[in-house]
Fold this protein.
Amino acid sequence: MLLLWLIIIPFVFSLLSLSMEIIKRIKIAKYISLIGLNITLVLCIIEWLKKKSQLATNIHDNFIWKSELSYPWISKFGIEFHLGLDSFSFIMVILTCFFGIISLLIQTEKKNKSYKIFYFYFMSMIGSIIAILISLDLFLFFCFWELLSIPIYFILIFNGKKTVYKQDRISIANQFLMYSQISGILFLCGSLFLSLLYYNLHHYWTFNYNLLSNMLISSEKNQIFILLLFCFSFFIKIPLIPFHGWFIKVQKISPISGSLDVTGLLIKVAVYSLIRFHFIFYPKIVEKFSIFLIIISLSNIAYSSYMAMSKKDIRQILAYSAISHASMVLIGLCNINIWSYQGIILNVIANTISIGSLLILSSQLYRNLKTHNIDRMGGLWGNINFIPFFFLFFLFSNLGIPGTANFLSEFIIISHFFNSYPIISFLISFCFLFSSIYSLRLFQKIFYGNINRMSLFENNGFIEVIILSFLSVLTIYIGLFPKYFLNFYL
């Protein structure tokens, strides 16, 4: 029953927030949303502690559900309201709630009529994400996959950056929705095809993840077809090149905390889905096409790094950085084993923390300088308090400096990939060298050189300091003492 509450609570509190926003009690709506997220987080942790003794003991056990709930829905087609949690789902739900809370804490817009229904959309988005993470019925997964696009669509239009014309925001939101619909259609086609194969074997319909994952697909052509449908569906949402255009534009118009939501939460849902469906449905086929996936990953890293070096908007640079690091997940999946699997999960956590932290810092800069253009900054080192230190720390973390969680995750993936593809492993490491170039350029443009634009930085950012301090400690702790986090997935 707890699994059901993990979905119900965010949607209930979204309606409570809406009631407060209608009567223009914006602060109360924010506090209601925070309460809802904290309750969801606490319930998830309680459930995790209850099931701690049942944690997985090997990589295959990560797909044994510690909690499971199922109700009949559309019985004629074998569709159920089927939910479940394993160790991977646990950490992803916790990560979603945690960064949702951070997004709300740094949300400081006041007396802005455009934010009158922000918290309703925000909590609806969180509820949809959690539902995706714990859905064990492919049709139910598809429903929430599509539902997730709706609150994000309206956030982009009504709560997007006001320096961008509304017509442009509508155009970008429409583009995002179009890509989301294509992704959903591909996933639905893959699900229907799997269900049809199951029907031909057993003569009844089902969309049950457990049953479909244990189905033997004898035809290699069918396996390849399923691989293409699911992979392209998730590639669009991660997003990998050439499907990245919508993401870069969304980052340009997202509200200050909205960019954190998209990068820290939405993309991780796509990565989670890729990992979940890859490992169960088509790992053997992936081995045959691994060289093509590796080429895609290398091209993605090189192109993203090149584009990041040419951009002037902080959030667009960070967006390309997130795309580049997402390629490490695809590389890890080309040579899946217990160690690379652990590295993939740590990579998701580490990059969520580092990119999310840099977005928080870019938001702090924007509130004071009213720009994300690095050419209009400069000379800020020594003129502001905490921002340069944290910015430099999380840039280094994002680069994979030893002692950080990012370094550990990338080292695990590349080191075990090295056994099969030593030359390609070298090329991957070399491609990440370009990350240091655009990162140092970013830091130099913002904090050194002539003072192009300066404000009093009246906002001391006390909440941001507490959040960033905690995230810094967490990043170092995972990097130096990884035993617990690695054992969590064993």
